[in-house]
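Q: My labmate handed me this sequence with no annotations at all. I'd like to see what the chain might look like in three dimensions before we decide whether it's worth expressing. Could you predict it?
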Amino acid sequence: MAGDARRESGDATGDAEGDVLDLGAFIRSQRERAEMSVRRLAELADVSNPYLSQIERGLRKPSAEILQQVANALRISVETLYVRAGILPDLDRPTSTVPEAIEHDDELSAEQKQALLNVYESFLEQR
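A: Here is what I predict for the chain of 127 residues:
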Protein backbone atom coordinates (compact mmCIF):
# COMPACT_ATOMS: atom_id res chain seq x y z
CA MET A 1 0.00 0.00 0.00
CA ALA A 2 2.77 2.38 -0.91
CA GLY A 3 1.70 5.95 -1.42
CA ASP A 4 -1.32 5.79 0.92
CA ALA A 5 -0.10 8.73 2.99
CA ARG A 6 0.30 10.88 -0.11
CA ARG A 7 -3.15 9.98 -1.47
CA GLU A 8 -4.94 10.08 1.86
CA SER A 9 -4.29 13.70 2.77
CA GLY A 10 -7.81 15.11 2.16
CA ASP A 11 -9.65 16.37 5.24
CA ALA A 12 -13.39 17.01 5.59
CA THR A 13 -13.97 20.63 6.54
CA GLY A 14 -16.38 23.51 6.02
CA ASP A 15 -19.71 23.38 4.18
CA ALA A 16 -18.78 20.18 2.37
CA GLU A 17 -18.90 18.26 5.66
CA GLY A 18 -22.46 17.05 5.09
CA ASP A 19 -21.56 15.89 1.59
CA VAL A 20 -18.61 13.94 2.98
CA LEU A 21 -20.86 12.29 5.58
CA ASP A 22 -23.37 11.37 2.85
CA LEU A 23 -20.59 9.99 0.67
CA GLY A 24 -19.20 7.92 3.54
CA ALA A 25 -22.63 6.57 4.43
CA PHE A 26 -23.22 5.67 0.78
CA ILE A 27 -19.89 3.83 0.55
CA ARG A 28 -20.67 1.99 3.79
CA SER A 29 -24.13 0.96 2.53
CA GLN A 30 -22.65 -0.29 -0.76
CA ARG A 31 -19.97 -2.23 1.12
CA GLU A 32 -22.56 -3.80 3.42
CA ARG A 33 -24.77 -4.60 0.44
CA ALA A 34 -21.79 -6.44 -1.09
CA GLU A 35 -21.37 -8.25 2.25
CA MET A 36 -17.79 -7.04 2.49
CA SER A 37 -15.78 -6.06 5.55
CA VAL A 38 -14.01 -2.71 5.78
CA ARG A 39 -10.72 -4.62 5.78
CA ARG A 40 -11.60 -6.50 2.57
CA LEU A 41 -12.77 -3.36 0.75
CA ALA A 42 -9.63 -1.50 1.83
CA GLU A 43 -7.53 -4.36 0.51
CA LEU A 44 -9.35 -4.46 -2.85
CA ALA A 45 -9.25 -0.66 -3.19
CA ASP A 46 -5.56 -0.51 -2.19
CA VAL A 47 -6.13 1.95 0.66
CA SER A 48 -5.44 1.56 4.35
CA ASN A 49 -8.12 0.12 6.59
CA PRO A 50 -8.11 3.15 8.97
CA TYR A 51 -8.37 5.58 6.05
CA LEU A 52 -11.37 3.77 4.55
CA SER A 53 -13.00 3.73 7.97
CA GLN A 54 -12.48 7.51 8.22
CA ILE A 55 -14.06 7.99 4.79
CA GLU A 56 -17.10 5.96 5.83
CA ARG A 57 -17.47 8.02 9.00
CA GLY A 58 -17.23 11.29 7.05
CA LEU A 59 -13.91 12.32 8.60
CA ARG A 60 -11.98 12.36 5.32
CA LYS A 61 -12.79 13.51 1.82
CA PRO A 62 -11.23 11.09 -0.65
CA SER A 63 -9.62 12.17 -3.90
CA ALA A 64 -11.07 11.24 -7.29
CA GLU A 65 -8.36 8.58 -7.59
CA ILE A 66 -9.35 6.94 -4.29
CA LEU A 67 -13.04 7.10 -5.26
CA GLN A 68 -12.21 5.33 -8.51
CA GLN A 69 -10.39 2.57 -6.61
CA VAL A 70 -13.29 2.18 -4.17
CA ALA A 71 -15.85 2.12 -7.01
CA ASN A 72 -13.88 -0.55 -8.82
CA ALA A 73 -13.58 -2.63 -5.65
CA LEU A 74 -17.33 -2.32 -5.01
CA ARG A 75 -18.10 -2.94 -8.69
CA ILE A 76 -20.20 0.21 -8.96
CA SER A 77 -20.03 3.15 -11.34
CA VAL A 78 -17.30 5.62 -10.51
CA GLU A 79 -19.61 8.37 -11.77
CA THR A 80 -22.03 7.50 -8.97
CA LEU A 81 -19.34 8.18 -6.38
CA TYR A 82 -18.17 11.32 -8.20
CA VAL A 83 -21.73 12.73 -8.08
CA ARG A 84 -22.03 11.83 -4.38
CA ALA A 85 -18.68 13.53 -3.71
CA GLY A 86 -19.68 16.65 -5.66
CA ILE A 87 -16.99 16.11 -8.31
CA LEU A 88 -19.61 15.72 -11.05
CA PRO A 89 -22.97 17.48 -11.20
CA ASP A 90 -26.10 15.44 -10.57
CA LEU A 91 -27.73 15.79 -13.99
CA ASP A 92 -30.76 13.79 -12.86
CA ARG A 93 -31.60 16.41 -10.22
CA PRO A 94 -34.05 18.92 -11.66
CA THR A 95 -33.10 22.56 -11.42
CA SER A 96 -35.71 24.11 -9.18
CA THR A 97 -35.17 27.86 -9.52
CA VAL A 98 -34.36 30.36 -12.25
CA PRO A 99 -31.15 31.50 -10.50
CA GLU A 100 -30.00 27.86 -10.29
CA ALA A 101 -30.74 27.33 -13.98
CA ILE A 102 -28.76 30.44 -14.89
CA GLU A 103 -25.87 29.43 -12.63
CA HIS A 104 -25.68 25.91 -14.07
CA ASP A 105 -25.77 26.99 -17.71
CA ASP A 106 -22.26 26.32 -19.01
CA GLU A 107 -22.94 28.23 -22.23
CA LEU A 108 -23.11 31.58 -20.40
CA SER A 109 -20.16 33.66 -19.28
CA ALA A 110 -20.00 35.00 -15.73
CA GLU A 111 -21.00 38.44 -17.00
CA GLN A 112 -23.99 37.06 -18.91
CA LYS A 113 -25.12 35.11 -15.87
CA GLN A 114 -24.95 38.23 -13.71
CA ALA A 115 -26.86 40.27 -16.29
CA LEU A 116 -29.63 37.66 -16.46
CA LEU A 117 -29.83 37.48 -12.68
CA ASN A 118 -30.13 41.26 -12.52
CA VAL A 119 -32.97 41.26 -15.06
CA TYR A 120 -34.74 38.41 -13.27
CA GLU A 121 -34.46 40.13 -9.89
CA SER A 122 -35.77 43.41 -11.38
CA PHE A 123 -38.87 41.58 -12.63
CA LEU A 124 -39.44 40.13 -9.17
CA GLU A 125 -39.19 43.57 -7.59
CA GLN A 126 -41.90 44.91 -9.93
CA ARG A 127 -44.54 42.39 -8.77
